[in-house]
Specification:
The chain has 450 residues and is an alpha/beta fold.
């Protein structure tokens, strides 16, 4: 770099040749003497000693210097601007070179740190590489838990939406007259609310709004009020006489009405309150029922008693009562086989269970619960009547109200049989069985918010 700089200094002026100046005129002797006096160094000391070892002539010849073809007139001073520009250029080149080296080092490090590419083996003929599995989607955040009324309203949505839409269509821009009342009565009966409830609604509507303009909203409000009047007397809590130990609950019903599952949910509520519960698998006709009840007993911390498949159900009821009494259980819940009400021999066996329990305790069974499937509609009315005569049913539990369009049947049953409705279920979950509330049910049926 320094050598290049010196070269530029000594060659400065040759890059841009200029015209040679005209030869100067011949100087006189006086002018030459004046010029010599001006150019003579003024600080030269004529008496300085000569060095003992002056530079040899050979060294002087090889010491470099201006080129032979340069004349003193070609040598001039380098401008300061040129030197600064040269320095800036050299600095920029140095920085660029450093940056390139650093970039190269980083790229080399990245390559060395990167994991080696996997070697894909060549599969033999007849094989193929499996497609990569897509990553499983993240589980959605748990939804906010609905209140009991929200779940009930969702379960009765089909019933309420169908009923209210028909009522609204019937009373669009129409005065209340005899023909309209008859049509409304038919509509309510078709919705499984029963003849008695339908007459109550139409009578109340006629007494209050006859001859006047009536909207669908007016009718649904009156309907909800009349349904509450029907259901209020039967919405009662299940009373347990714990002076009898055990308090025996016999659960009956047609196949598929959810007896075993309902027993498990009842056991969960009772054992959760600190009561000692025993479950007896009296459905000896289905192995799955015995196993299912055993699972519920384990989940709820209840005592389980069962027998082999096909054994005498009345004998199991007897054994269960004696064991529950010896172990001082508070409640004994006995499952029974699902029986169709038109099968006389099966209903006779149910009568035998009731007689055996009555011999052990004149008041047993203390509670006989019948489970009803809301989807059966009008057939549930006949079931209640027959089981009530055979087993002395004194309380109802309505199940499967989730999604049915026939939830109004509970109103018809309550109006006709006037049996207590202790619980209703809207699903299979352990929390989907709750005490029956007349106002909640009526509002859900009528589609009215609470």
């Amino acid at each position: 770099m320094a050598l290049g700089f010196i070269k530029k200094v000594f060659t400065f002026g040759k890059e841009k040749p200029a015209e040679k100046p005209a030869a100067p005129a011949e100087l006189t002797a006086e002018e030459k003497a004046a010029i010599s006096a001006e150019t003579e160094p003024r600080d030269r000391d004529e008496d300085l000693a000569v060095a003992e070892d002056p530079v040899l002539a050979e060294q002087m010849e090889t010491a470099g210097g201006p080129a032979d073809d340069l004349s003193p007139e070609d040598i001039s001073m380098v401008p300061l601007e040129l030197l600064e520009a040269e320095a800036e250029e050299e600095k920029a080149e140095a920085l660029a070179a450093t940056a390139d080296d650093t970039k190269a080092e980083i790229e080399a490090a990245a390559v060395s740190d990167a994991p080696p590419e996997p070697v894909v083996p060549v599969l033999p003929k007849g094989f193929a590489a499996a497609e990569a599995r897509a990553p499983e989607p993240e589980a959605p955040a748990p939804a906010e838990k609905l209140s009991w009324f929200q779940r009930l309203k969702a379960g009765l949505f089909r019933t309420s939406s169908q009923l209210t839409s028909q009522i609204t269509a019937l009373f669009t821009k129409r005065k209340l007259d005899d023909e309209t009342l008859e049509e409304l009565e038919d509509l309510l009966i078709q919705a499984d609310l029963g003849v008695e409830t339908a007459l109550r609604v139409t009578d109340t509507l006629a007494s209050e709004r006859y001859g006047k303009d009536v909207t669908g909203e007016d009718v649904t409000k009156i309907m909800a009020t009349e349904i509450v009047k029907v259901l209020k007397p039967v919405a009662k809590p299940l009373a347990l006489d714990l002076s009898h130990k055990p308090h025996v609950i016999l659960v009956v019903g047609v196949n598929g009405t959810g007896k075993t599952t309902t027993i498990g949910k009842l056991a969960a509520k009772l054992s959760g309150s600190g009561l000692k519960v025993m479950l007896a698998a009296g459905d000896t006709f289905r192995a799955a029922a015995i196993e299912q009840l055993k699972i519920w007993a384990d989940r709820t911390g209840s005592t389980f008693i069962g027998t082999k498949l096909g054994a005498d159900a009345a004998g199991l009821a007897y054994e269960g009562f004696e064991r529950a009494k010896a172990e001082k259980s508070d409640v004994l819940i006995i499952d029974t086989a699902g029986r169709l009400q038109n099968k006389a021999e099966l209903m006779a066996e149910l009568e035998k269970i009731v007689r055996v329990l009555g011999k052990l305790d004149p008041d047993a069974p203390h509670t006989v619960l019948q489970t009803l499937d809301a989807t059966t509609g009008q057939n549930a009315l006949q079931q209640v009547e027959i089981f009530r005569n055979v087993a002395g049913v004194n309380g109802l539990i309505m199940t499967k109200l989730d999604g049915t369009a026939r939830g109004g049947i509970l109103v018809a049953i309550a109006a006709k049989h006037k049996l207590p409705v202790y619980f209703i279920g809207v699903g299979e979950g352990i929390d989907d069985l709750e005490p029956f509330e007349a106002e909640d049910f009526a509002s859900a049926i009528a589609g009215i918010a609470r």
